[in-house]
Write a structure and sequence with these properties.
The structure is a homodimer of 110-residue chains. The first copy, chain A, is α+β, with helices and mostly antiparallel strands and 110 residues long. The first copy, chain A, contains six helices and three strands; from the N terminus they run ααβααββαα. The first copy, chain A, has a single domain, classed as Orthogonal Bundle (Arc Repressor Mutant, subunit A). The longest helix of chain A is centred in the last third of the chain and has 22 residues. Chain B binds a DNA duplex (30 and 30 nucleotides) through helix 4. Chains A, B: This is Winged helix-turn-helix transcriptional regulator.
DNA sequence: CACACATATTCGTTTTTGCTAATATGATAG
DNA sequence: CTATCATATTAGCAAAAACGAATATGTGTG
């Protein structure tokens, strides 16, 4: 049994709960990339990506490493990588149920 | 390697990314509970809890079961339970780094 | 030092989320 | 069938998140 600060946990999970951020994580899952590479891979503005990278970093999901004028971002560690995989596995399981939900997009309280 | 619809995944994770919803999950982790029980356990209004339960249900994290005039909520399945545990384990690992983050609360873009 | 390139930050706006209070639905008991 | 208890839904408002555009910082190069 592990004890975790709830606020910390929520912040961490917040990092995962956005489409663009998820794509970024997927994008750098296998190897570190510079911001420009990520911007190219994704279809978003440099400013937007930079903001999400900042969020992901603050949430503890990724780390940045400077090398010359580039900054390379990658997943924080192997555990984060494992967690992302596990989430995918669990989700494959419950996917159908979730997909049939309606309230999420319109309903303002979710 | 598992393929998952990104929107589905984000929706699922969205369910986890709120303090109250996390507390609800924790609260019903070991056994199913009625809404009233949950409301009593947590410090929030019935309406508020009901809305979060609705969200959690839509996100695929919990299921409800009617019995008489009560509705019992519980985690969807063992995998969800396992996932919550795994998240705690990974978090224990990166907790300190995350805790030292400043931008999250004030910064509007994260 | 000035210029170019890579990345971060700020500002203003729009959209989404969360909350409370009030009301509605639904089930059971009498 | 109506009164009561359990739960859900709606409406309106306040707060937070997301975004684009513009600007700032920082790093290497000539």
């Amino acid at each position: 049994m592990v004890t975790i600060d709830l606020d910390t946990k929520v912040k961490f999970l917040h990092g995962l709960s956005h489409k663009t951020r998820n794509q970024i994580l997927e994008c750098i899952k296998d190897r570190e990339k510079t911001v420009s590479e990520i911007v190219t891979d994704m279809k978003a503005s440099q400013s937007n990506i930079s903001q999400h990278l900042s969020c992901l970093k603050d949430c503890g999901l990724i780390v940045g490493r400077q090398e010359g004028k580039y900054i390379y971002y990658s997943l924080r560690n192997q555990q984060v990588r494992d967690l992302l995989s596990m989430i995918d596995i669990v989700l494959a399981d419950v996917q159908n149920d979730i997909a049939s939900c309606k309230n999420f997009v319109q309903g303002g309280d979710c």
